[in-house]
C-alpha cells in the first residue's frame, strides 16, 4: 500500500529525492514571466506557496519572456559560455539561436536533431589567426560538460507553466540541465483507483500533442505512482517504458532536508 495519500505528497517526496542527489530546486511560479501572452495569467496570479505558507519569490524574467518558452535561456547561455570559453561570444550566440530554432517537419525529427546536438555537439566555424594568416576553424560546441559533471547546472522545477496554441499545461516535474528541459516526470497517486501508471503515460501523450515545444528538447520521460516508476523515450509506447530500478548507491533522502529555493 502506498504511504502517500495525495499527488502533492508524491511530488514533494520526489523533489526531496532530487535534492538529495544534488539538484537545485525552483517552483515553476519562481520562473514566471511578468506578463502572460494571453494577458490573463500574470506572475502575481501564479505566485505559489510552500507547505509552510511562505510565498515563492518570482525571479527575474531573464530566463523566460513568455509562457511559450521552454528553455531557460539565461542559464543555457551561461552554461554554453562556461563549457566553451575558447569559442568567440558571437559564435556561441549563433549556436544558441540554432538550438532555439530547430526546424523539422515533426516532433520526432526535431527531437532527433536535438539529440544529435546534445550528444555530438553543435558544429561551429569561425575565423582565427593562423601561421599563414586568417583561417577558418571548425569544432564542436558542447551543451553538456561530459568530462566534468560539476561544471553543469542541475535544476528540478515543479508546476512549470507552458502555454502553446491556447493550451495551458503544468507538468509535475521537469529536470533542467544547463537550462535544457531534458526530463519530464508525471506523477499519479496509487491510492486513487482512477490514477495509475497508464494514466500518467496518457497524460504525457496529451502534453506531447498540446505543448510539443517542450519535447523537442526531451531526453527521458518518467512516470510514477509513488510505488513504482517507469522510464521511456519520447517515441516509446507504454509497453516499452522500462521499470526504474533504484541504485543502492543513491542516498536515502532525509524528509526534513531543505530544498534549495
How does this model look, in words?
By secondary structure, the chain is an alpha+beta fold. The chain has a domain at 7-72 and 144-243. It is built from seven helices and eleven strands. The protein has helices at 7-20, 43-46, 73-83, 89-100, 107-120, 197-210, 213-216; strands at 24-27, 122-130, 133-141, 154-158, 162-164, 167-169, 173-177, 180-187, 220-224, 229-232, 242-243. The strands form three sheets. The chain has a seven-stranded mixed sheet with strand order 1-4-7-8-9-10-11. α3 (73-83) crosses α4. The longest helix is centred in the first third of the chain and has 14 residues, at 7-20. Mean pLDDT is 83; it is low at 35-61 and 252-261.
Give the helix/strand layout:
Layout: H1 7-20, E1 24-27, H2 43-46, H3 73-83, H4 89-100, H5 107-120, E2 122-130, E3 133-141, E4 154-158, E5 162-164, E6 167-169, E7 173-177, E8 180-187, H6 197-210, H7 213-216, E9 220-224, E10 229-232, E11 242-243
Parallel strand pairs: 1-4, 8-9
Antiparallel strand pairs: 2-3, 4-7, 5-6, 7-8, 9-10, 10-11
Helix pairs in contact: 3-4
